[in-house]
Design a protein that fits this description.
Layout lengths: L7 E3 L6 E3 L16 H5 L5 H7 L1
Antiparallel strand pairs: 1-2
Length: 53
Amino acid sequence: MKKKDLPTKMCVVCQRPFTWRKKWARVWDDVKYCSKRCAGQRRAKPEFLARTE
């Protein structure tokens, strides 16, 4: 499978697209965040997230 053919999702925190990773193969349906940082910021205030972009 080529990189361009991998499935993608939108991160619920930063609203950026991210692609499938092998380590997520078993839990891809449950993955919501593109990184550990976004997972940690899921309850952060929106103005904090606006400053990081």
